[in-house]
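pinging the channel bc i need a second pair of eyes. not urgent but kinda urgent?? the chain im working w is below, pasted from the shared doc
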Amino acid sequence: MKNIVTVLLSLLWFSIYSQNRIEGHIIDNNTKQPIEAVNVYFPQLEKGTSTNTEGIFNLKNIPNGTYKIIISYLGYETQSINYKFPNTAVLKIEMVTSAVEMEGIIISTPFHKLQSENVMKVEQENISNLKKQGAVNLSSGIANIAGVESISTGLGIGKPVIRGLSSNRVLVYTQGVRLENQQFGSEHGLGLSSNGIESVEVIKGPASLLYGSDALGGVLYINSEKFAQANTTMGDISANYFSNTLGYNTNIGVKQSGEQFKFLFRGGVAEHADYNTNNYRVTNTRFKETDFKAGIGYQITNFKTELRYNANVSKLGIPEEIGEQSKLKSPLLPYQDITNHVLSSKSTVFLNNSELDINLGLIYNDRKEFEEHHHDEEHEDEHDNAEHEEEPEEGLEAALHMKLKTLNYDVKYHLPELGKFETIIGVQGMTQSNSNYGEEILIPDATTHDIGILATSHIHFNKADVQIGARLDNRTIKVLSGIEKNFSSFNAALGLKTSIAEKLVARVNLATGFRAPNLAELTSNGTHEGTNRYEIGNENLKSEKNIQIDVAVEYKSDHLELFVNGFYNTIDDYIFLSPNGNFIDEDPVFVYLQDNANLYGGEIGFHVHPHPLDWLHFESSFETVTGKQSGGSFLPLIPANSLSNTLRAEFSNALFNNGYAFIKYKSTFKQNNTGGFETPTNAYNLLSAGLGGTFKVFEKDLEVLFSGTNLTNKTYINHLSRLKPDGIFNMGRNFSLGFTYHF
């Protein structure tokens, strides 16, 4: 007890006597005039402020050590500065004008750098930009990110696809913890709302070094909204209307921060009717969603912590065929009723020139799936002759009911910098249990235990940056019926970023990854609603292991940006489904097999903002992915090649602040490289446009956006649509109108 008291008193003394403050002055490098409202942010401390009318900023309660400061303002180059405390000098910064958009801080990689400093190529997109493009929900919005698509079941259910890989091969992080929600299922969506989310980051390629199993294909990292700056109170209310689904998404949020304590709350509701094509409404694509987020934080000089909670309740119709046309919003049978709870804790202890990060997560996924109710023959005849839709009966028992409970942890220690080396060591793990309560058993009751240890270093040279790392993992799966499986893997990564010429940067990354078989692949024995097949697991499956090389070359000048990204991914023991020729209950039987596979492709594009028309932007990008098994047959669910062209204008005047307008034309090419159970998909072109800006209303900002997607009302089918086998079209023309009022 005496020792514990001594340690606590030591920490208290350390926190009192290691407080620092910083003062700075920011001006324009040409005019030498001060710049007001410049953002000054410490990503490691998660503290920030803005400059006053004289271009001056102040921050206090900063611990000893070296910390990165990000200086950003629209119309200027984002600057990154390493600043060592204690230091009493006044920081003087001259900002350089630029037509290039402000850089965001990359959170998904361990050293919290700007993308221009990062060794690994990471795509980042603000949620506000995805909404401007008319995204109905989060899953449809992420399909606008380069290299990312979505496997969709209607509009309400979507799964991210990164360079041809999806489901358990893509790991999703939210609130700083891994999201577990039975993602093995083809029709199991994200279960996350876009409300209260600031940005999305995508690691395209194996990230097992940082995240362990299931990051073999990449990571979708979702960044929650930040707390308010110290001693401020903020609030906003937002509403969006969508003409195609007669739907809406509305939310309200409030956040307040003092010097030490801070909190935020946000609640939202969304409802949509069946989406409309040029010819018909697609029956039972309707869905409802209720979302609540809350957070509380505490911060002193040498310690910060935050606790966040998200409850998401969604009721999602599962479309099967085109039925009676309706504008109702209550899902019909079959449908999913899903509740996701995510409770996360993120804490950091700042030591002398080092820090300890502790992230904990508790995820509770309650999944219910309701099927058609079977009446006697007389009632079936009455139902067949009815000319109205039958609403689901109250008190109906779920055919499938699973509860997935997951506790995960992530502890990392940032060692003191040693010369050119920044080094992190850590341990990550997960304990998970799956329980069944319905009459159908899709996967059995089981527990899963993960543990991994890792070390990674960022090495700074004069003309290059190198990142290296290694990791050892173990996963144990115990099934109640007596099956016990153990999987281990060692992985490593090596990356290099260097300037090969003025304004020309190259990145080369080589990484290995692995994925242990999931419960469905090991133990399935039954038909799942919506799949129309009987799946049989294989308990003899081995772990998938891959190695991928990524090469990225970027040229960036004042008015032109070019990029070329290429990758080659080889996967040993790739797990896939294949029919064995048998039938059970009139459903074809599919079994899980393994074979080696290869995926390759990339993205190429450019961005022009010509002088003196800096407000005008033209962007073009092409994406391609090819996936094959070792025998030469193509892998299923590989996105078709696509070409996107966007013309965008940005402006501000006496009426508008941050005004914008855009026209986008996306061409998706014919997909002839199909898996054994797929058919080719025709090419199509989609036209979209939008405009918006910010007004002052009662001296507060009102953001307004208006956009239209599929403006020509094209009838088309995306290759990754799960409704494609039934010939059901994707969504037709849609107009969206939205506003956000800040108070």
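so Residues 4-9, 11-17, 374-389 have pLDDT under 50 and may be disordered. and Helices lie at 2-17, 127-132, 138-141, 208-211, 377-385, 519-523. — does that match what u expected or am i reading it wrong
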